[in-house]
Recover the amino acids of this structure.
C-alpha cells in the first residue's frame, strides 16, 4: 500500500532552514501522530522519512517540478 503525503501547515515557531543549514522537511505521520525533521541526503537528491510506529518509509525526491512546501502530513 503506497503512502500518501500532502502539504501541511507548519507547526507554530517552525521556519525554513537558514541558508547555511542542511535543508530539511517537516513530516508528521498521521498513524502515530509523530513529527520528524527529515534532512536531505548527502548527495542532495532526496529526503527519506520512516514512520516510527509502522516503519513504512517515504521518499521525497529533489528536482525540477517539485514542491516548495516544507511541511507534509503522511498517511500510512
Amino acid at each position: 500500500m503506497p503512502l500518501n503525503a500532502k502539504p501541511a501547515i507548519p507547526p507554530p515557531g517552525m521556519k525554513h532552514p537558514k541558508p547555511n543549514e542542511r535543508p530539511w522537511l517537516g513530516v508528521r505521520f498521521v498513524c502515530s501522530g509523530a513529527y520528524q525533521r527529515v534532512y536531505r541526503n548527502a548527495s542532495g537528491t532526496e529526503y527519506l522519512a520512516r514512520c516510527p510506529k509502522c516503519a513504512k518509509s517515504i521518499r521525497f525526491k529533489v528536482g525540477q517540478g517539485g514542491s516548495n512546501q516544507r511541511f507534509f502530513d503522511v498517511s500510512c
The chain has no helices and six strands. Strands lie at 4-7, 24-29, 34-39, 46-50, 57-61, 71-75. Residues 4-8+24-75 form one domain. The mean pLDDT is 85.
